[in-house]
Amino acid sequence: MRPANASLLGTTTFRLALSYLGIFTVSAVALLVLVSWSTTMFIEWQVQETVEAEATGLSEVYRDRDLVGLSEIIGHRVRQDLDARATYLLMGLDGHVLAGNLRAWPPEVGSQVGWARFHIMPTGGLGPGAEVMAQVYELADGYRLLVGRSLADARRVKSAINRALGWGLALTILLGVVGGYFTSRHMLQRVDQMSRTAKSIFGGDMSQRMVLSGTDDEFDSLAESFNEMMDELERLLEGIRTVSDNIAHDLRTPLNRLRSRIDLVLLGPPDCEKYHRTLEETLAEADNLLATFSAILTISHAESSARLESFQPVDLSQLASDAAELYEPLAEEKEVTLTCGVEPGLTVKGDRHLLFQAIANLVDNAVKYTPAHGSVTLAVSSLLEPGMVDLVVTDSGPGIPEESRDRVLDRFVRLDATRTTPGNGLGLSLVKAVARLHGARLMLGDAHPGLEVRLRFVHAKD
Amino acid sequence: MRILLIEDDSEAAAYMVKGLREAGHVIDHAATGTDGLFLATSERWDAMIIDRMLPGLDGLAIIQAIRAAGNTTPVLVLSALGKVDDRVRGLKAGGDDYLVKPYAFAELLARIEALSRRVSAVQPETRLKVEDLEMDLLARSVTRGGHVVDLQPREFRLLEYLMRHAGQVVTRTMLLENVWEYHFDPQTNLIDVHISRLRQKVDKDFDPPLIQTVRGAGYTLRAAR
User: Fold this and answer.
1) What are the tens digits of pLDDT across the range A145-193?
2) Nearest CA in chain A to B179
3) What is the pLDDT of residue A126?
4) What pLDDT band is residue B58 in, cutting at 50, 70 and 90?
5) CATH fit for domain B2-120, picks 3.40.50.2300, 3.40.50.300, 3.30.70.3270, 1.20.210.10
6) According to the 3-state scheme, what is the secondary structure of chain A?
7) Closest to A48 measured CA to CA, from A108, A116, A98
8) Does B216 touch chain A (CB under 8 A)?
9) Quick one: DSSP state of residue A68?
10) pLDDT at residue A360 in the model
11) What is the pLDDT of residues B21-55, one digit of tens each?
12) Closest Cα to residue B24, out of B48, B3, B51, B50?
């Protein structure tokens, strides 16, 4: 990422602002030209109308009262026209002026008849005077009449409009550039902030999160997604770390036991039968280790997987019945009654094998911790909560005190401090991981006496 | 049995070669994917054991290649990848069985021997017979020495699997996978309890006992010597 100020002009936002400004300027100029042109046209058209009306009036006077009357009227009108907008000239063949407010026939008009434009000398005599629009008539006996009107007003309006529009344009461009600069600087600051956060996460500080501005804009939603991603990542990394810690702690002990057992036998005198016995014990220990190891892997797999797209509808009722059937002989051997009350055909979305493993772990635990003549119940029902499927395993064993219920879900936790019952302390944490993967709620409760474990799944109706 | 082993880990390969030879099999070993493919296609084998991750050519690619060539030799896939989807991928590529590392040698031996039996029994059988134990697959009835043995459906399937692999060792995992059709680790000796129930019905009142425990491996169905 580039430093903020050096690259400001090169940012996407600024380039975008500039190109919008360009388009806006071009259209503003086009609009200006159009407005100025149409205003001029409108004023000139008005002048033309006025001149025409006046000329018509004068020609009527000429028809009724001849040259004398015409001269009088022109003289009268010139006197009345105080702001000197109108121009009249009645001139004889030899060039002498009969009436009017021009000293001589304007050379720009010459001998043409009809509409003409010319400039009159201002009284000061400097520079070109106001432009006049005039109509020229040929009268009898070579007399010529010129009736005109100054276009100075039209010019003034036009230049006023042009000036106003020009200033407006300049202001627009200025605001555009300044606005673009500040907008892009603002955006760049946020992008820079994000990039700094990302860098410090790279640097190893996994707890860093993007700062939200609270405006709920696109940057906030980007930052939110990023933060969610980081939470998930952190959770996964934490999981990996826990697994490696656990492997270090809980596999080291049995591995060490394994090693010292072999060591001890090798120290003694060679004895074939002793060797054989030790090897058998070692093999059993190794098998246990492998089982623990694969349980850890299954848990981490369940914990790290996203809810898979490939999840299929699974008949939870069938899984529960199968598990009950599978564990029934074991329960019988332990003189525990295993009853199974399953509402048929309830499906959830998931991984069949992982779900079965979870149910098996629950039933296994229940049978294991229930004393002889006790009972274990496995039930699947959709009636407890609408849209949900509950799988409940209840036993009549010692139960779990309320304060320990959260703790037993962690890895390698066994409440039985003497560790006389077989097991690796991973059973419930696997259930927890499978529940999380399937979006199910895991609840531990009291069965008075005994433990009630409830898994609440979303019912997958087809 | 002539078995081809394609495995790049020389120590693991030496261990397997030794064990399989002691079990009476003829075994050839290839250490790379390319050598393995060459041996697999150029000679006739009764079974192949193929490691999934190999230098040169991936194990699954070898299986796909030999299957594409119309070779139906049973293949056992060995892999360190043990998730259900990995297993499915391995079987989809044309593997007949999938064994996750680390494994017990007894498991490998039992599975490879079960595989060779699977090919020989492709045509559907209607009756199975071991000594005086008879199973009628159509009527779903079992008799021992002429006496009817009453079995639950699951017990029937368990006995059927044992009978189909009579004389071979079947492991507890194989029973779970094939009789119950779940891949999972039972934390207790579940299968042993089921077997002991079956023994009550099949062996208790008869002689000789047919269901034998093979230490460190599993079970086998045959007359005790």
Assistant:
1) 888 888 887 788 888 888 888 888 888 888 888 888 888 888 888 888 8
2) A326
3) 47
4) confident
5) 3.40.50.2300
6) CCCCCCCHHHCHHHHHHHHHHHHHHHHHHHHHHHHHHHHHHHHHHHHHHHHHHHHHHHHHHHHHHHHHHHHHHHHHHHHHCCCCCEEEEEECCCCCEEEECCCCCCCCCCCCCEEEEEECCCCCCCCCCCEEEEEEEECHHHCEEEEEEECHHHHHHHHHHHHHHHHHHHHHHHHHHHHHHHHHHHHHHHHHHHHHHHHHHHCCCCCCCCCCCCCCCHHHHHHHHHHHHHHHHHHHHHHHHHHHHHHHHHHHHHHHHHHHHHHHHHHCCCCHHHHHHHHHHHHHHHHHHHHHHHHHHHHHHHHHCCCCCCCEEEEHHHHHHHHHHHHHHHHHHCCCEEEEEECCCCEEEECHHHHHHHHHHHHHHHHHHCCCCCEEEEEEECCCCCCEEEEEEEECCCCCCHHHCCHHHCCCCCCCCCCCCCCCCCHHHHHHHHHHHCCCEEEEEECCCCEEEEEEEECCCC
7) A116
8) yes
9) H
10) 92
11) 998 999 999 999 889 999 998 888 999 999 988 88
12) B3
Whether B197 has its CB under 8 Å from any CB of chain A: the answer is yes
Task: Give A-chain residues touching B194 at CB under 8 angstroms.
Answer: 326, 329
**A356, A346, A421, A437: which is closest to A384 by C-alpha?**
A346
Matching CATH number, A220-302, of 1.10.3470, 1.10.287, 2.60.40, 1.10.10:
1.10.287
Dihedrals phi, psi of A230, to nearest 5 degrees: -65, -35
pLDDT at A3: 47
A1 vs B63, higher pLDDT: B63
Under an 8 A CB cutoff, do B184 and A287 touch?
Answer: no
The pair phi, psi for residue B182, each rounded to 5°, is -125, 140
Under CATH, what is the fold of the domain B127-221?
A: Arc Repressor Mutant, subunit A (1.10.10)
A71-A73-A75-A80 Cα dihedral, nearest 10 degrees: -170
Q: Domain segments of chain B: what residues?
A: 2-120, 127-221
Q: What number of C-beta contacts closer than 8 Å exist between A and B?
A: 56
Cβ–Cβ of B193/A330 closer than 8 Å? yes
End-to-end CA distance of chain A: 50
| CATH 1.10.287 location in chain A | 220-302
pLDDT surpasses 60 at B120: no
Place of tokens 């054991």: B49
Contacts with A, B 85-114, CB within 8 Å: 85, 100, 102, 104
More confident residue, B185 or A347: A347
3 state DSSP class of A148:
strand
pTM value surpassing 0.95: no
Residues of chain A with pLDDT under 70: 1-10, 82, 84, 121-129, 243, 246, 250, 305-310, 410-425, 462
ipTM value > 0.90: no
**CATH architecture assignment, domain A308-458:** 2-Layer Sandwich (3.30)
Q: Which amino acid is at B35?
A: D
Give yes or no for a contact between A243 and A304, defined as CB atoms under 8 angstroms apart.
no
Continuous segment of H or E residues that includes residue A391? strand A388-395
